[in-house]
Each structure stands twice: as structure tokens, then as C-alpha cells.
């Protein structure tokens, strides 16, 4: 058996309430996302006192280098997981797309919440208001820190140029608005909506233009695997359809041995109790090759693995190898 120790505090009436500490990145978006999870937990467990602990991660500190060149798989999660391991926090809220597909020993995903839109969005420079990627002038520069986005959009919109842009949402929008370096930037629609900036979305990219990142738009709660009561507490946040979609997506990426630095893209949907997964691996020039039953989760995982094997048999491994080599050389 095991014993769990938690902070406790007394309210004004002398009543002792349990304190659960939630780890998060310090960015405004991360805090908004974590606050939304905390609000749901508080609604379900009013007697629990929640404390939010903000931390800076490697990905937050290195802002002058493209993500694909850093080579670290846990850019936005390692420091949070270290705090979880040291019992400094009891659970951590992540954007699921930042979370590596294989977690360190002793950690598990306790919940995946209902997904916001997983699609990418175009934010235009104010001088291009009313345009779209298709109607921007020849050689317009589009900012994105994602190889996945650039690889797909180069193929779809060959008249455009793509350059790296780093920083949190606030920083990237300021870089767009204050200078003439970029005609537009590509961001996750979910982040813009959670920040209350939906009015900045000029165009939502459908899967035929740009499939999204594995786990994009979903929030995950990571916990220590041994903490049965914390697992029980957060499991009620699970959204069944989101869980199955993300299991398939993450199995697909894991079997390809990919990460956020390789151009792997997906599109999933649940229709009539059937789970559909579309996935692709792109070369850097844009060419391409509740309670949930364990059975359903296993089938979702199998779907991801089967699709990954199909793409590997059609040359995806070589594309991924070249992509990593080109990243190293850049």
C-alpha cells in the first residue's frame, strides 16, 4: 500500500480543507487554460482548495531558435514533470500537443478534456484585412514556427514564403502588427479563442489546406501514476470522443517516432460511433507520401499504429530521416 500526503489549511471556521497544487507554464495562455481546468475541478469538488504554481520551461526560455532546431522532445513539459516528481505539485495541465507521446516512468495522463477546435488559423497583418492566403500578393511572408504548417502550406500556396517566428501568442501578434516583416502568421485557433481573440482570426484552415498537429486543441492533465485518488478526482474531466481521437493520433505519431519537430499532420473525427483518422508525413518542400471501454481505446491505438505502418511502408521513414538531418544542418 502507499500513503499520500497533502497540504491542508483551515478556513475561518476551523475546517480543514485539502490543498491540491496544480503546475502550469507561466504564459498567459497556459494560465487561462489551467484556470479553466481548476474551475471545473472546483465546481465538482467545492471542499478542495486549489493552488496554481507557475513555472518557466525550456521552450519558454529559448525564444531565438526555431523549435525544430532545439532537438528536445519535452521543451514545454520537463520542468513541470520535475516538479511533479518532487511532489511540489499534485497535477500538471498541458496543451496535449506539447506532451511527448511516451511519458517518463511513473507519470500518466489522468484526463483529456473536451477539445477546442484543433484547426490552424490565419491572422493577417491589418493592412491585408479581407484577404486570405490564396489572395495575398506574390512572395508575401508568412510566419510560423511549425515545420508541419510550412510543409503543407508551401504545397498548397506556392506563391507564399514561410519564415520562423517564435514567442508566445502575445509576442507573435505584436511582431505581426508592429512591423512589416510578415503579411500573416499561422496560429492554433484554440489558443486564440481561449485568449478571447477570436476576432483576430481571418481564416480557419480546413484539413484539405492544412491538417493539424497531434493533440492540438486538447488539454491534458498529467499526474503521478501511483496517486489513485488524484487519478479518480481528475478522471471525471475526460471527454470520451476527444480521448479516443487523441489516442489514435498519439499512437500514430509515437509509431513514426516523431515529435513536434517533424512534419507529421493528422485529422480525426468520430461519426456514427466510428473513429476516422487521416494522417500524413511531409517532406520539408511540401511533398507528401467519461468511462471509455478499454476495447475502444485499444482499437483507437491500433488505428494510429496501422496508419503509421502504412505510411512507413510507403517511404515515410526516409522522409522523417531527411527532415531530422535538415533540421540538424540548419
Your description of this structure?
The chain is an alpha/beta fold. The chain folds into 3 domains: 8-113 and 218-238, D-Maltodextrin-Binding Protein, domain 2 (3-Layer(aba) Sandwich); 120-204, D-Maltodextrin-Binding Protein, domain 2 (3-Layer(aba) Sandwich), CATH 3.40.190.10; 239-329, Double Stranded RNA Binding Domain, CATH 3.30.160. The protein is 35% helix and 22% strand. The protein contains 11 helices and 13 strands. It has helices at residues 28-44, 58-61, 67-70, 78-85, 147-156, 169-178, 189-194, 228-235, 240-255, 294-313, 316-329; strands at residues 7-10, 16-25, 49-55, 91-95, 107-112, 120-124, 141-143, 161-163, 184-188, 203-205, 219-224, 264-271, 274-281. Strands 1, 2, 3, 4, 5 and 11 form a 6-stranded mixed sheet that branches. Strands 8-7-9-6-10 form a 5-stranded mixed sheet, sandwiched between helices. A hairpin with a 5-residue loop joins strand 1 and strand 2 (16-25). The longest helix is centred in the C-terminal third of the chain and has 20 residues, at 294-313.
Descriptors:
3 domains, D-Maltodextrin-Binding Protein, domain 2, porphyrin biosynthesis, six-stranded mixed β-sheet, globular, 330 residues, 22% strand, disordered N terminus, Double Stranded RNA Binding Domain, five-stranded mixed β-sheet, alpha/beta
Short overview:
With 330 residues, the protein is of the alpha/beta class.
Q: Under the CATH scheme, which class of the largest domain? A: Alpha Beta
Overall pLDDT metric: 85
Instruction: Report the count of strand segments.
Output: 13
- What form results from the Cα inertia axes? globular
In percent, how helical is the residue content?
25-40%
Domain Porphobilinogen deaminase C-terminal: 244-312
GO cellular component, one term: cytoplasm
Cofactor: dipyrromethane
InterPro entries: HemC (IPR000860), Porphobilin_deaminase_cofac_BS (IPR022419), Porphobilin_deaminase_N (IPR022417), Porphobilinogen_deaminase_C (IPR022418), Porphobilinogen_deaminase_C_sf (IPR036803)
Amino acid at each position: 500500500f502507499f500513503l499520500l500526503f497533502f497540504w491542508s489549511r483551515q478556513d475561518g471556521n476551523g475546517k480543514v480543507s485539502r490543498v491540491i497544487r496544480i503546475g502550469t507554464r507561466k504564459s498567459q495562455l497556459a494560465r487561462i487554460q489551467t484556470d479553466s481546468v481548476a474551475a471545473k475541478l472546483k465546481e465538482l469538488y467545492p471542499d478542495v482548495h486549489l493552488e496554481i504554481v507557475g513555472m518557466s520551461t525550456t521552450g519558454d526560455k529559448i525564444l531565438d531558435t526555431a523549435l525544430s532546431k532545439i532537438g528536445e522532445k519535452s521543451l514545454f513539459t520537463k520542468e513541470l514533470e520535475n516538479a511533479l516528481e518532487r511532489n511540489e505539485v499534485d497535477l500538471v495541465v498541458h496543451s496535449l500537443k506539447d506532451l511527448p507521446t511516451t511519458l517518463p516512468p511513473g507519470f500518466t495522463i489522468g484526463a483529456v478534456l473536451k477539445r477546442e477546435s484543433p484547426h490552424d488559423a490565419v491572422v493577417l497583418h491589418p493592412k491585408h484585412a479581407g484577404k486570405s492566403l490564396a489572395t495575398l500578393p506574390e512572395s508575401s511572408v508568412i510566419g510560423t514556427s511549425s515545420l508541419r504548417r510550412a510543409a503543407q502550406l508551401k504545397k498548397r500556396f506556392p506563391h507564399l514564403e514561410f519564415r520562423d517566428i517564435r514567442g508566445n501568442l502575445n509576442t507573435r501578434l505584436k511582431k505581426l502588427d508592429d512591423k512589416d516583416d510578415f503579411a500573416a502568421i499561422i496560429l492554433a485557433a484554440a489558443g486564440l479563442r481561449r485568449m478571447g481573440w477570436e476576432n483576430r482570426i481571418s481564416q480557419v484552415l480546413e484539413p484539405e489546406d492544412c491538417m493539424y498537429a497531434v493533440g492540438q486543441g486538447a488539454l491534458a492533465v498529467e499526474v503521478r501514476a501511483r496517486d489513485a485518488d488524484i487519478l479518480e478526482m481528475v478522471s471525471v474531466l475526460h471527454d470520451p470522443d476527444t480521448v479516443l481521437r487523441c489516442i489514435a493520433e498519439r499512437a500514430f505519431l509515437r509509431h513514426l517516432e516523431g515529435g513536434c519537430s517533424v512534419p507529421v499532420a493528422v485529422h480525426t473525427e468520430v461519426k456514427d460511433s466510428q473513429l476516422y483518422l487521416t494522417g500524413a508525413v511531409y517532406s520539408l518542400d511540401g511533398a507528401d507520401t467519461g468511462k471509455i471501454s478499454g476495447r475502444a481505446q485499444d482499437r483507437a491505438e491500433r488505428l494510429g499504429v496501422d496508419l503509421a505502418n502504412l505510411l512507413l511502408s510507403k517511404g515515410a521513414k526516409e522522409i522523417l530521416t531527411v527532415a531530422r538531418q535538415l533540421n540538424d544542418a540548419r
